[in-house]
């Protein structure tokens, strides 16, 4: 992939009731016109959280805490794509609430190791969720991603899958993970990919390759550099979360 | 209304400097109807009780407070306003040669200022005077939101500026020998004096001053009470007067709330009312929270999860500033950071149910607490307890948390409390799980600058079932 030289979009961000001049400016997510990609609403709060985890001076404790907050928002948004049915209930004060109930079972699948950092956020929202794992690493000889290990729920073919990977650069591992899931009988339309930071070219390619799969991301960055790192990025997510 | 006045004053003063003045429309001015809310403490009734030393003023005041047994009736002793003594005067005081029984010894200017603050519904810092040291201590005691204040002291009816602020003037009377013997007992026991000194003071200062300054106050008194607390008829008269004042205040407060209701329902909701998007996930959580058959464990889990999103949404409404950061790959990113400290104030009891969500978003946020309860009989909200972070007025944003807002009475009162403590209304973000349209209208017509983040808007006034379910009692 080539280095992108596009100018990052800068906007005044803030609630609608504030005048433009009262809203501070910040770089927001690159817009992509893809029906199956949802970018979280670019609120000042989300931008501030991303600013903290992008900052190289942020220590590991803060990195974990603030990325967890973003992950929870991703999970909450991802779950919106599950099917629902009408379900009216009676409240303790006797009022009828026109409610909704969710249909279908879910599970999480994390792409090791950075994806595992998103499991806590998933559990915060779905207490006893089953979580499978997939280990994909670059093969030293071919330089291609290779499946090393997987452990998935046996009935995964009957479930909706929340696929977890915080960083999406060229998307080699995510593409392979989706192929593993499909080979276990999970239909593409029942996979929801949750991601914090993506490159525009990677995510466009992914969305075109799997048109029925849904991606939910917090931010689409400017592009990739010549080493295929996301720019401006946030560094190596796994290192910052687990070991730095 | 206040905002408009401020703008004009500012413009006038700038004109005086001959500068080029561009009148910027103050946001308040564009709101045609800014309603006014007067909390029940806005016009405190003050009762002055004067009389000779040892005539039973403080015993009478305490008996009144005890009989009424309400947290809104507060005693303020004029002794707190003794002037601090300089070294020379202090030496005389220790020799019992300083005249504490002359009006000169009291700082009436500070007293009048504090009483005016209280009349305006503001918080007043009362000096603490030490009789052992003959000096004001560094600390002060705060008085805030009394509905009735009893000002007690030998010169409570002395200063004409104080007299103007009093709603009832009482003069206590007792025989001179009763007064002297009470004074001896009190000064030996409570103030560590010796009998010779006390008697010396009595004849050189107390008695002459009584005749010259204290006794003439009976001329301005509304009632003169002989025999103090033993005088049951007088006690009943005074307590009935206070009860009537409290009743009037409560009636006016409730009428003010009702007035806000009639003008509220016709208008659309203010654009500073921010509703959580009713996404399928939120509606699903709401279904479990609303369903009376949901288990307690599930109710608490889903309520906490919902409130985490509510607090995240509230945080979108705090002020941010641009900041440029450097990523580990040494690229720059034009991001944002909060402009300053964000704290929270929990409206008890319901608001405490939002604290789990608050801690997930802001684990170390300073948290104030306000206990506001609705009177079971009248439905009137009443302020019982208050503990706020000291530096709250300097915080860039204050999240005010309550589980449910129905008629808006307690929310109005909570916002008023914050405003009285120096928090600008436009820095307050009220977050509530559910709110009635009526309450939202009331709050936003009185405080249009306040942002309200709401999980659910309901049509009617509803009983506070959420906190009952959350705390299981």
TrEMBL record, chain A:
Ranges where the Phosphoribosyltransferase domain occurs: 41-242
Signal peptide: none
GO terms, biological process: pyrimidine-containing compound salvage
Keywords, alphabetical: Allosteric enzyme, Glycosyltransferase, GTP-binding, Nucleotide-binding, Transferase
Entry similarity comment: Belongs to the UPRTase family.
Keyword Ion transport in annotation: no
Annotated organism of origin: Pseudoneurospora amorphoporcata
GO MF terms held by the record: GTP binding; uracil phosphoribosyltransferase activity
The protein, known as: uracil phosphoribosyltransferase
Keyword Phosphoprotein part of the UniProt annotation: no
EC number annotated for this UniProt entry: 2.4.2.9
UniProtKB/TrEMBL annotation, chain B:
One annotated GO molecular function: uridine kinase activity
One of the GO biological process terms: pyrimidine-containing compound salvage
Biological or metabolic pathway of the protein: Pyrimidine metabolism; CTP biosynthesis via salvage pathway; CTP from cytidine: step 1/3; Pyrimidine metabolism; UMP biosynthesis via salvage pathway; UMP from uridine: step 1/1
Domain AAA+ ATPase: from-to ranges: 43-307
InterPro entries reported for this sequence: AAA+_ATPase (IPR003593), P-loop_NTPase (IPR027417), PRK/URK (IPR006083), PRTase-like (IPR029057), PRTase_dom (IPR000836), Uridine_kinase-like (IPR000764)
Pfam (any one): UPRTase
Broadest EC class assigned to this enzyme: transferase
Reactions it catalyzes: cytidine + ATP = CMP + ADP + H(+); uridine + ATP = UMP + ADP + H(+)
The enzyme's E.C. designation: 2.7.1.48
Keyword entries, A-Z: ATP-binding, Kinase, Nucleotide-binding, Transferase
The keyword Aminoacyl-tRNA synthetase appears for this protein: no
SUPFAM superfamilies to which the protein is assigned, alphabetical: P-loop containing nucleoside triphosphate hydrolases, PRTase-like
Similarity annotation: Belongs to the uridine kinase family.
Name of the protein in its database record: Uridine kinase
Organism: Pseudoneurospora amorphoporcata
